[in-house]
Amino acid sequence: QVQLVESGGGLVQPGGSLELSCAASGSIFRVVAMGWYRQAPGKERELVAQVTAGHSTKYAESVKDRFTISRLNAINAPNTVYLQMNSLRPEDTAVYYCNMLGYVAPTSASDSWWGQGTQVTVSS
After folding, report:
1. What is the spatial distance between Cα 120 and Cα 124, in angstroms, rounded to a whole number?
2. Under a CB-based contact definition with an 8 Å cutoff, are residues 14 and 66 in contact?
3. 76: Cβ–Cβ under 8 A, 6 or more apart, which residues?
4. Closest Cα partner for 122 from 97, 87, 95, 89?
5. CA distances from 113 to 34, 55, 78 (A)
6. What mean pLDDT is predicted for residues 79-100?
7. Strand order in the sheet with 77-85
8. Pick from 55, 61, 64: which is nearest to 35 by CA?
9. How far apart are CA 96 and CA 73, in angstroms?
10. Tens digits of per-residue pLDDT, 56-66?
């Protein structure tokens, strides 16, 4: 069973920084992409940033030049993704969810997994 475990959320003042991390575990045959979404109260969940297996990245316009996504696929930390968030603004306040797209077997259909979410609050 695939699980995503997130960490790193919290309270930060405007202009501050936070780093989120997400580690995937379980039987994973191939990862297509890993990313971060967020959902603010009363709003729909939106893509924040994504990195593919080929290390291509995409970002929401609102976070470009402030957030950086990176993926670690080292032997001792496989399928781990980070989100470095700088120059945080009150409008970045949301629950941040890690997401992974991939396959559990060579002949399986693709699947999507979600973490439990971590709260990020930007406030003075």
Report:
1. 13
2. no
3. none
4. 89
5. 10, 19, 16
6. 96
7. 3-7, 18-25, 77-85, 67-74
8. 55
9. 21
10. 999 999 999 99
